[in-house]
Amino acid sequence: MSKRVLTTESGAPVADNQNSATAGVGGPILLQDQHLLEKLARFNRERIPERVVHARGSGAYGHFEVTDDVTGFTSADFLSEVGKKTETFLRFSTVADSLGGADAVRDPRGFALKFYTAEGNYDLVGNNTPVFFIKDPIKFPDFIHSQKRDPFTGKQEADNVWDFWAHAPEATHQVTWLMGDRGIPASYRHMNGYGSHTYQWTNAQGEAFFVKYHFKTNQGIRSLSADQAAELVGKDGNSHQTDLLQSIERGVYPSWTLYVQLMPAAEAADYRFNPFDLTKVWPHSDYPLQRVGRLVLDRNPDNVFAEVEQAAFSPNNFVPGIGPSPDKMLQGRLFAYADAHRYRLGVNHTLLPVNAPKATVANNYGRDGLMAANAQGRGAKNYEPNSFGGPVETGLPLSAPLAIHGYTGTHEAPAHTKDDDFFQAGELYRLMSEEEKQRLVANIAGGLSQVSRDDIIEKNIAHFAAADADYGKRVEEAVRALRD
Ligand code: HEM
């Protein structure tokens, strides 16, 4: 086999890739050694800003196949026929740690899914938990600051973690979930994915439904205890990445079955829980799961940096027939992600192969910017409207309009009849077996007992007690036993 010649970035052959050019044998290096200069300079620029959250992750390609007819609820083209297949890319992640952090830790997992549909890319950027810690995006930067490394100590601090939760009673439900058995998934393959938010579906007749997405793992749920996780982290910090990569390379393709809960839009106002409150679930007895299709991951990316690190998912990438709900958290996210991408990857990140549409082409008048690679054909106009056959708007709404009323202002989310910060956390606790309760309490006490201030501990215990008196009492006793 003839050897390919090593070249500089401009394509010129490289004479020596082992010795830099010097002024005489043993002399200083010459500035004219273009290959050395380019190699070192290029190397210095290999890293880009990491994601401010969900920095550590793994990704894979696959497809989604519709198994059940949902055309009565959404006009989305990729869901329009049983048997229809759409190419997908899924990035899993942990949340709090920086790039290089360990995989097997107690933390929610990201479940960010891109459907490359014929009507554009649809991004569903969810987690492995059906709820979240907060319900207003204005709290998100404070929340994340409290969970990531402390600016002084440079490590995660129990004081910060629990101080935030002491001031956020609405987090009790998600904290109960996180500290429970599912808090450390055994791998990305052995956990569910949830859209978490409520979204809107609109059918061809223009009728609106609110929808929650549930991707149930077909591998079965498997989780690790705190001890098992600590041992695994010591052996393989990249355990989730190893598992996903090797499983797909072996031809053992992980899959998830997608179910949805659907609520006719007219029922939202009087539902017992605020359906747009991200700290709440809709009990399945109120809105049962309906099967939609199957997601399979069957191809590893060729290059982790190009395809996983540079992947960009944004909750505001909708397709016709799917839209946002008034969930305030979701509304905040509609801004935050594309803004993060413009900072992290640049304004032309949508041109990268992993982010560009695959089943259609993007046609618009956005132009230029750093790293523009979308040279438009000769004579293509860069303004709209124009008289030269450029792309035009459809005039068709993407989703049904929703009625709003009231006054502008900094309002708390409206409380429905059964809404408080604790009821659903208590329900989750009461569902657990005795052994599960014991593990939950031990996990909470393990963290909470490390907090330096009694008032922060007491406030957190009060939240668990408000969810369920027995829950609060047990946490209090377990914390006391560890601190005495
Ligand atoms: C107002 C609340 C939130 C804000 C402002 C926010 C903001 C962000 C930002 C800025 C990123 C980094 C994006 C990037 O650099 O590519 C990110 C990543 C992510 N967020 Fe959020 N987030 C919020 C809540 C949530 C919630 C509730 C979920 C899940 C239900 C979620 C799931 C994710 C996932 C999965 C990623 C990683 C996406 C990927 O793999 O590239 N976030 N978030």
Automatic annotation (TrEMBL):
Cofactor entry: heme
Residues covered by region (Disordered): 1-24
Stretches assigned to the Catalase core domain: 7-392
Catalytic activities: 2 H2O2 = O2 + 2 H2O
CDD domains: catalase_clade_3
InterPro entries: Catalase (IPR018028), Catalase_3 (IPR040333), Catalase_AS (IPR024708), Catalase_clade1/3 (IPR024711), Catalase_core (IPR011614), Catalase_haem_BS (IPR002226), Catalase_immune_responsive (IPR010582), Catalase_sf (IPR020835)
UniProt cross-references to Gene3D superfamilies, sorted A to Z: Catalase core domain (2.40.180.10)
Enzyme Commission code(s) on record: 1.11.1.6
Record's keyword terms, sorted: Heme, Hydrogen peroxide, Iron, Metal-binding, Oxidoreductase, Peroxidase
Biased composition (Polar residues): 1-22
Pfam families for the chain: Catalase, Catalase-rel
GO BP, sorted A to Z: hydrogen peroxide catabolic process; response to hydrogen peroxide
Name of the top EC class for this enzyme: oxidoreductase
Residues bound to heme: Y337
One Gene Ontology term, aspect cellular component: cytoplasm
Single GO term (MF): heme binding
Annotated signal sequence range: none
Location of the active site: H54, N127
Similarity comment text for this entry: Belongs to the catalase family.
Protein name: Catalase
Species annotation: Streptomyces mesophilus
